[in-house]
C-alpha cells in the first residue's frame, strides 16, 4: 500500500515535470523570432540538425512525460501495457541530449580553433555523458517497497514478485 510520503513524492514529480514543460514552452515563445532569423533561414548542415534535435525533441519528451505523470500507471497487470510508450518517450529524451551534447561539442571545438587535441579529449567525455543519460533515464525510480509492492515513478508500474 502506498504511504502518504509516496503519494507526496509522486505529486512532486508530476508538478516538477509540468513546470519544466511550462519553462520549455516559455523559452520557445521568447526565442522563436531569433530562431527563424538565425537557424531556419540558413542552409542545413550538421549544426542545424543538432539544433533542431536539441530544440524540438524535448517537446515530444515533455508532452509524453507530462501525460505519463497525469495518467495513473499504478498496478498495471502487464508491463508491456506501457513499454512502447516509455520507449518512445526515452528516445525523445535521448535525441534531445545527443543534440545538446553535439552542439556543445561543436561550439567548444570552434572556440578552440578546430584543435584535434581538443576532439581527442572531449569526444570520450561526450560519449560518457550520453551513456550516462541513457543509463539514468532508463533506470526506474522506486518508492515505497512495502509488502511486495513497488511504486515506480515515470515507468511501467507493477507488483514486485
TrEMBL record:
Alphabetized InterPro entries for the sequence: DUF6533
Q: Which UniProt keywords apply?
A: Membrane, Transmembrane, Transmembrane helix
Which superkingdom does the taxonomy of this entry point to?
Eukaryota
Signal peptide span: none
- Which residues are listed as membrane-spanning? 12-32, 44-68, 118-136
Q: Where is the DUF6533 domain?
A: 15-60
Q: Name one Pfam family in it.
A: DUF6533
Please state what the protein is called: DUF6533 domain-containing protein
Q: Which organism is it from?
A: Rhizopogon vinicolor AM-OR11-026
